[in-house]
Write a structure and sequence with these properties.
transmembrane helix, 3-stranded antiparallel beta sheet, Tyrosinase/Hemocyanin, Di-copper_centre_dom_sf, single chain, alpha+beta, 32% helix, globular, di-copper center containing domain from catechol oxidase, 529 residues
């Protein structure tokens, strides 16, 4: 079946996940600062009659923030989402959603009690039909209006505190592009003034949890609009790649024969229009991106500034990054040294882990290498390669979690840049999710990566893993105790033998046994435990 025919057959209107629930984008909800929509299942707010959830006051983190944002009360995203709402649905058990009408990630079934594990696969391991289906799903998302969500086209002040509504409809794919823009946009300070050193999704500890949630939500919306409950986002393993191997008409679109900055007309991505790419225009007008079309996707892979990004990342750089034991360090921003997050994000050298913002490594390197829409932070999600790229970045994050098995307290609780503390709610998601909730292994969230699966790992081995990890952590103490015990045993044995010698004399029949006995060999073995 052709991609066009598949896309046509799949065009149905279904709910989508994003920022402002349509049910709460009205004057009454904004003036009351309450977003607790009815659940269709029983007609009660948050499904309360069915014990799915309840409308409750939002509990905001009071932990101190870092010094990067020296303002207060000037940005709608501060203490998200309290500028717009201070009461939302608090779901119980395994229920989730702005009205508690869905299941948490990793659960399914009528009462959300059934565990489910899906597998993300390498895009080059998909069959032709699977690959074509994925491309059709992308095109479907670009042409399916969101039924449950709208975007804000003005700030809360511009909305006159809720009495002058400024919301707009948007398609499902662009909804996620807009969310990525909104989380990373500059702060509008009035006049022509802006504050650029702010980002709720990048350059700080929340970078990896934020994008992990972003992908999970995008994945779920595709599952809903297509009815394909097994759908997962494929990843592109770009380690050691010599060029953009997904940049072909068979996959994500080849190069235009006449204009190297555009996509080949043989790819339907060439007809896509981008949004939210003109940050300087929005800043000068003190306005938000309103999702107006701004031209075609731009991409010219490999023709980037080689002094900043000479090539795509290598396997050795990824392995070095994975060896870093600290998730976060120092200022917890793009200047952090020996930080796994900062090195993977690409602001620290992937060979030394020392911050170097004049270079772009790992995650950032791929964005710069694409040399187009992907290379500008706020609008980077316009290029569908964004999804393949971030799925692989998330798999590296997953490898680090499995290797180092950090406890939740490893994620910073305080003094991170605004929006990035462990208990901060992530901008701009409603329902609400905290950063720390996604600092956990992917399998707890219902998904895995094909290249990380271990088929031979039986249940007994799985049972042993936590204990082996604990043994690894206390190994130095065990070695020290063993050495000390060996020395003490050797001394005591020598004293005992000396006493025996003194008591028994120097009989030649006994002396040879002192160096050939099993006790002697055991002492030597124990000292090397």
């Amino acid at each position: 079946m052709s991609l066009f025919a598949m896309g046509f057959l799949l065009v149905i209107l279904q709910p989508s996940t994003g920022q402002f629930p349509r049910a709460c984008a009205n004057t009454q909800s904004l003036l009351r600062k309450e977003c607790c929509p009815l659940w269709d299942g029983d007609g009660s707010p948050c499904g309360e009659s069915s014990n799915r959830g309840a409308c409750q006051a939002i509990l905001l983190s009071q932990a101190p923030l870092g010094p990067q944002f020296p303002f207060s009360g000037v940005d709608d995203r501060e203490d998200w989402p309290s500028v717009f709402y201070n009461r939302t649905c608090k779901c119980k058990g395994n229920f989730m959603g702005f009205n508690c009408g869905e299941c948490k990630f990793g659960f399914s079934g009528l009462n959300c009690t059934e565990r489910r594990l899906r597998t993300r696969r390498n895009i080059f391991q998909l069959t032709n039909s699977e690959k074509d289906k994925f491309l059709a799903y992308l095109n479907l998302a670009k042409n399916t209006p969101s039924q449950d969500y709208v975007i804000a086209t003005g700030t809360y002040t511009q909305m006159n505190n809720g009495s002058n509504l400024m919301f707009r409809n948007i398609n499902m794919y662009d909804l996620f592009v807009w969310m990525h823009y909104y989380a990373s946009r500059d702060t509008l300070l009035g006049g022509s003034n802006v504050w650029r050193d702010i980002d709720f999704a990048h350059e700080a500890p929340g970078f990896l949890p934020w994008h992990r949630l972003f992908l999970l939500l995008w994945e779920r919306e595709i599952q809903k609009i297509t009815g394909d409950e097994n759908f997962t986002i494929p990843y592109w393993d770009w380690r050691d790649a010599e060029d953009c191997v997904v940049c072909t008409d068979e996959y994500m679109g080849g190069r235009h024969p006449a204009n190297p900055n555009l996509l080949s007309p043989a790819s339907f991505f060439s007809s896509w229009q981008v949004i939210c790419t003109r940050s300087e225009e929005y800043n000068s007008q003190q306005s938000l991106c309103n999702a107006t079309s701004e031209g075609p996707i731009l991409r010219n892979p490999g023709n980037n500034d080689k002094s900043r990004t000479p090539r795509l990342p290598s396997s050795a750089e990824v392995e070095f990054c994975l060896s870093l034991t600290q998730y976060e360090s120092g200022s917890m921003d793009k200047m952090a040294n020996y930080s796994f997050r900062n090195t993977l994000e690409g602001f620290a050298d992937p060979r030394t882990a020392i911050s170097n913002i004049s270079q772009s490594g790992l995650h950032n390197a791929l964005h710069i290498y694409m040399n187009g829409s992907m290379s500008q932070v706020q609008g980077s999600a316009n290029d569908p390669i964004f999804l393949l790229h971030h799925a692989f970045v998330d798999s590296i994050f997953e490898r680090w979690l499995r290797r180092h098995r950090p406890i939740l307290e490893v994620y910073p609780a305080a003094n991170a840049p605004i929006g990035h503390n462990r208990e901060n709610y992530m901008v701009p998601f409603i329902p609400l999710y905290r950063n720390g909730e996604f600092f956990i292994p992917s399998r707890e969230l219902g998904y895995d990566y094909e290249y990380l699966q271990e088929p031979a790992l039986d249940s007994f081995q799985e049972f042993l893993i936590p204990y082996l990890e604990q043994a690894r952590q206390i190994w130095p103490w065990l070695v020290g105790a063993a050495v000390t015990g060996g020395i003490v045993t050797a001394v005591l044995s020598s004293l005992i033998l000396a006493c025996k010698k003194k008591r028994a004399g120097t009989s030649p029949e006994i002396q040879p046994l002192l160096t050939e006995s099993e006790d002697y060999n055991n002492i030597s073995y124990q000292s090397h435990f």
